[in-house]
């Protein structure tokens, strides 16, 4: 089963330099994933459901997309466990004047089917027919790995980003730290009253972009997004706070932690909770689109120094992985 979405990129999809926001692409990726996974989960007779986004694996932005280009988003179901479905998505940009096409993104998303009668109830997923025997075993390994990572992330996400009243010196964490407060309305939600995952990702990318721009004061673009974990649903009427802070800088990239907290202001029985979290990586570009050096982050507190070292570890791990992939095969 596969599906495809296509849309031309407009000026309101991009920054002042004409580069399409990473959040716009992430929102399209999630829309394609939601369509195909909801179709699959309703492909057999039984209780009707809607597929809700649980996790997005690391997503690399391989090439910038520009205003006037057409984004083609194709989605395919590649694995199903008892209660979740894996969707792999490819994004290609097309210059409709020259016909040139290039791959810009590859992403893997995980959805769970929620009953329309009770959105707190997770239903079973219909089985997937695999084209070759190894696909199911490979998919099961990916499922177990992401399940373990989701649990680890959930336990370490109790941290709260406190508002900064007096921003510090340039290149410090407090100087670029940013927050966005958003009241969840009907246009943000599915027909069943909880927020589209793509809407949340777009807001997360927006906040990360503000942090990166404040730090660099140049044109910045999304380079990659580490796994985005959706810890809990966000319902219509909630006030969400999306907070971003710089955690690490290399010579030409910067890592920004983004946390989403939901406050159910119309429901006194539920307290504020962590809804989603991720690390975004940005790069700084010149007017010609060439990478620029990034001002080095100056961590001040012990917590900031600890987060810097953790970010450095993630950076070195990913750098080693990329180098391993590019080495010639014997």
From TrEMBL:
<comment type="function">
    <text>Catalyzes the hydrolysis of acyl-CoAs into free fatty acids and coenzyme A (CoASH), regulating their respective intracellular levels. Preferentially hydrolyzes palmitoyl-CoA, but has a broad specificity acting on other fatty acyl-CoAs with chain-lengths of C8-C18. May play an important physiological function in brain.</text>
</comment>
<feature type="active site">
    <location>
        <position position="205"/>
    </location>
</feature>
<dbReference type="GO" id="GO:0052816">
    <property type="term" value="F:long-chain fatty acyl-CoA hydrolase activity"/>
</dbReference>
<comment type="subunit">
    <text>Homohexamer.</text>
</comment>
<keyword id="KW-0963">Cytoplasm</keyword>
<dbReference type="GO" id="GO:0005829">
    <property type="term" value="C:cytosol"/>
</dbReference>
<dbReference type="InterPro" id="IPR006683">
    <property type="entry name" value="Thioestr_dom"/>
</dbReference>
<dbReference type="InterPro" id="IPR033120">
    <property type="entry name" value="HOTDOG_ACOT"/>
</dbReference>
<dbReference type="InterPro" id="IPR040170">
    <property type="entry name" value="Cytosol_ACT"/>
</dbReference>
<dbReference type="GO" id="GO:0009062">
    <property type="term" value="P:fatty acid catabolic process"/>
</dbReference>
<feature type="active site">
    <location>
        <position position="15"/>
    </location>
</feature>
<feature type="compositionally biased region" description="Basic and acidic residues">
    <location>
        <begin position="303"/>
        <end position="313"/>
    </location>
</feature>
<dbReference type="Pfam" id="PF03061">
    <property type="entry name" value="4HBT"/>
</dbReference>
<dbReference type="GO" id="GO:0006637">
    <property type="term" value="P:acyl-CoA metabolic process"/>
</dbReference>
<feature type="region of interest" description="Disordered">
    <location>
        <begin position="301"/>
        <end position="330"/>
    </location>
</feature>
<keyword id="KW-0677">Repeat</keyword>
<feature type="domain" description="HotDog ACOT-type">
    <location>
        <begin position="174"/>
        <end position="288"/>
    </location>
</feature>
<keyword id="KW-0378">Hydrolase</keyword>
<keyword id="KW-0443">Lipid metabolism</keyword>
<dbReference type="InterPro" id="IPR029069">
    <property type="entry name" value="HotDog_dom_sf"/>
</dbReference>
<protein>
    <recommendedName>
        <fullName>Cytosolic acyl coenzyme A thioester hydrolase</fullName>
        <ecNumber>3.1.2.2</ecNumber>
    </recommendedName>
</protein>
<comment type="pathway">
    <text>Lipid metabolism; fatty acid metabolism.</text>
</comment>
<feature type="domain" description="HotDog ACOT-type">
    <location>
        <begin position="1"/>
        <end position="117"/>
    </location>
</feature>
<dbReference type="GO" id="GO:0052689">
    <property type="term" value="F:carboxylic ester hydrolase activity"/>
</dbReference>
<keyword id="KW-0719">Serine esterase</keyword>
